[in-house]
Amino acid sequence: MNDFYAHLDNYVDTHTEKLLNHLFDLVRHPSVSSSGEGVEDCCDFIISRMKEIGIDAVKHDVKPYPIITGSVGNDPKKKTVLIYAHYDVQPVGDLSRWRTEPFEPTVVDGKIYGRGTADNKGPLCAHLCAAEYYIKECGELPVNLKFLFEGCEESNSAGLLEFLTENVELMKSDVTYFCDGSKNHDDTPIIALGVKGMLYVELRLTTMTRDLHSQYAPVLPSAAWQMVELLGKIKKDGKCLIPGFYDDVIPVSPAEKAIYDKLPDVREDLKRTYNAYPTYDEKLGYYGTLNGTPSCNISGLLSGHTGAGTATVLTSTAMARIDMRLVAGQDGAKILESLKQYIKDLGYDNVEVICHGITPPSKTPIDTPYLAPIEKATNNIFHKSIVYPNRPSTAPDYFWTNLLKTPTIQVRWCDFDSDNHAPNEHVAVSNYLRGMKLTAAALKEIADFEI
Question: What CA–CA distance (Å, rounded) separates 263 from 259?
């Protein structure tokens, strides 16, 4: 092909309906890992689709849900690219808040609504369509291509570590590439080289055997108030007070800060979207604070009367869920033990700390040679991009960087307001189609680039 990009554009233009139907068919297969709804059937559907394309696909009996691997090509002269995605989704939540049926993809105003359209079935389908483009249109791929699709990413990637530990050679590659996440708030695709880790805990506090009439408030303990007081001792004035929480943080480097300082100002975009302005460390700036500092967030609170009516109760139990996003250098297991000891030292012997998962942080150096070809491909397809040395959310990147020892680059191209995990999740038709083009372009540019 003399003009790769023109040929790719023409292919997408003439196959748009087919490319969309592939995504629609995938979204119609529920795959909720927290409940197990439809996960096995969705896995089998994907394997069937991969084999139809010409990909050597294998279903691995990993608990709790299968892992899919696939491969095309084994030419020692070519670079090998591993593409990761996940096929499980979050629960749909409150159906009354959805404008369309969650598992019946519907196009409204140029956007495809449905659970998983953005996170992560849209990107997964785009990757497969890109492979199909090469196989059907070109006869071969410019690289050796490997796939790994998991069915438990939304539930802490259970089983993935054990699988990869036993299959390092099977998954060996020169670079890992994936797409999972939204654009910047100015609608620019984000090329991310690292992710935050996460420690997710639940605190359960008990004061009495049962809730009582609030007439006893002067003389008996309130679980709700004790929880509020405890949370105020865990974080205050924006700082986490768990001993040692910040000790191992690797700060944002001057080179990383130089990249962040060039990124667009999104304060007004955030105000328009969420009706709130961001607050951040003035020295680090918005992006340095967002991507380079750890956080301690209350994800949920529950205590006492929550139903209809005006019941007045003295609460006997309280629950708080806390997610801590960790940056490079931090150890979630170490912080968990410190939190447990801190709560004991504060005198709260009535609090149970339950850990719901630890994901280590991960980072690929900004001088990786694979950044340039992926940046070129993204700019050619989307006409712009920005680089995040680290992204503010969490993904299992450490599997690739720490275990498989490969540089890992992610491009976030879904709608900046795609509502992942929320009702009305969506992806624009235009972004989905460009996402397919991007995977095809990234493989070409990686193949052509002299490492």
Answer: 7
Q: What is the pLDDT of residues 274-284, one digit of tens each?
A: 999 999 999 99
CB-based contact 379:184 (threshold 8 Å): no
Q: For the residues 88-93, what does the mean pLDDT come to?
A: 97
- pTM of the predicted protein model: 0.86
Ramachandran angles phi, psi of 168, nearest 5°: -60, -45
**Which pair of tokens denotes residue 121?**
């079935």
- Judged against a pLDDT cut of 60, whether residue 448 lies above it is answered with yes
- 171-205 burial: b if 16+ Cβ within 10 Å, else e: bebbbbbbbbbbbbbebbbbbbbbbbbbbbbebbb
Question: Locate tokens 């785009």: which residue?
Answer: 126
Spatial CB neighbours of 248, under 8 Å, sequence gap ≥ 6:
329, 330, 331, 334
Alpha-carbon distances of 432 from 226, 307, 370, 436, rounded to whole Å: 48, 41, 23, 6
What confidence category does residue 156 fall into, taking pLDDT thresholds of 50, 70 and 90? confident
Contact 151, 67 (CB under 8 A): yes
**CA dihedral defined by 90, 96, 99, 102, rounded to 10 degrees?**
30
Give the C-alpha separation, 332 to 244, whole Å.
11
Task: Work out whether strand 190-192 and strand 386-388 pair parallel, antiparallel, or are unpaired.
Answer: parallel
